[in-house]
């Protein structure tokens, strides 16, 4: 019987176990350059016992940024800073993928050096709600609708960021197609109201996700390319009326590309049927961030044993437990995540969670 503690070949990248650290925004890239710091190096290095680390979302361009103090991967300075992170993880035997996240309409000009810019999206539809900024909460504003002629340039931004990730020493990249960000905005009918070849039908709404994935895979290799999706996710004012149709159609288009993995964020246990459908249609490595009724712990590991997933991704539990694989194997105890320190701040709640041997 396969367990979460067995190694796995991820499209040629050898992982020591099947426990992944899920991507989590931490908003600690301070300064005008939005580069990661020595604390970030320590943070990821502490968690290198994961079979796979997927970083926090990294914007591929200036207007791709959606939150304060999130890191980029579109300047030489940012690439050099990330190289310190990948070196630290590799020195401890770990593997790390960069998550490339274009926020699309989730952002605000106050975040960018040129405040005359507008966020971009498939349609000029503002998200409900507010964004936290250093100047206080700001209402989301209507983005600028991308023209058909501009969309290939956005695809190129993802490609360039992927190339920069390889230059920075990452083992691969994960394209963020979940949680209401740009790729997800193209997938969802309430944010994609286009009537051209990029919107309307399921076939057209999945086109952007397919084209980005195809272009990145061609640039850095399909084995180094993963995609994260979250069927039925309402975060950031997303309303999906047909996830049972949209996501299997997307995966069927991705299947011939031979990408390294598909990473599914399961929103509720009620979406397990969609999860299983995607598992059926995707022959590559299947990573699942499972829905649970309470804290995700060793009880979820049966999803590896019964074949629901090849790898399980853990979020806040990994944030608070840098040696999570050891704790899962021992069935605890677990440090409790401090939600007050999730976003921004200093090393408190970032690099000071004790390892099992020290707790």
Show the helix and strand layout.
Elements: E1 8-10, E2 13-15, E3 19-21, H1 38-46, E4 52-58, H2 76-91, E5 96-100, E6 120-121, E7 130-131, E8 138-139, E9 144-145, H3 151-167, E10 172-177, H4 182-187, H5 202-205, H6 207-220, E11 225-229, H7 243-254, E12 261-265, H8 272-281, E13 285-289, H9 302-305, E14 311-314, H10 316-320, H11 324-330
Parallel strand pairs: 3-4, 3-14, 4-5, 5-10, 6-9, 10-11, 11-12, 12-13, 13-14
Antiparallel strand pairs: 1-2, 7-8
Count of DSSP helices?
Answer: 11
Rg, alpha carbons: 19 Å
Average pLDDT metric: 95
Largest sheet: 8 strands, parallel, barrel
Tell me how many strands there are. 14
Quote the distance from N terminus to C terminus.
32 Å
Order of helices and strands: EEEHEHEEEEEHEHHHEHEHEHEHH
Q: What structural category do the secondary elements indicate?
A: alpha/beta
Strand content: 15-25%
Low-pLDDT stretches: none
What's the helical proportion of residues?
25-40%
Q: How would you write the strand order of the largest sheet?
A: 3-4-5-10-11-12-13-14
Which word captures the global form? globular
